[in-house]
Specification:
- The protein is α+β, with helices and mostly antiparallel strands and 90 residues long.
- It contains 2 helices and 5 strands, in the order E-E-E-E-E-H-H.
- Strands 1-2-3-4-5 form a 5-stranded antiparallel beta sheet, with helices on one face.
- A hairpin with a 3-residue loop joins strand 4 and strand 5.
- The protein starts with a strand and ends with a helix.
């Protein structure tokens, strides 16, 4: 199951999985695009392994790499709790 983490002003959605038994967390980034349908990229934490990158420019990917690196500790914490509302006690 994937849980919402963040929506950016350009409608880019960032979601994450629960932590798997091997300690990995899947982070999926998706942005609607009129021409291509969706641009997307997947990152596996805590290794920062990026796979399945489609449609994003190098500049966009630099932004996403920084964003995920700066938020990895929060995403990993939320992945252990199941979702944002559970982890943040809302």
């Amino acid at each position: 199951m994937m849980y919402p983490y963040m929506t950016l002003n350009d409608n880019t959605e960032i979601v994450h999985s629960e932590m798997s038994e091997d300690g990995r967390v899947k982070v999926y980034i998706e942005k609607p695009d009129e021409k291509d349908g969706f641009h997307h990229a997947t990152c596996f934490l805590p290794m920062y392994e990026w796979v399945d990158i489609y449609g994003f420019s190098d500049k966009e990917m630099d932004f996403f790499r920084d964003l995920i690196r700066n938020n990895a500790h929060v995403i990993i914490e939320f992945s252990q709790e199941g979702r944002f509302t559970d982890a943040s006690n809302f």
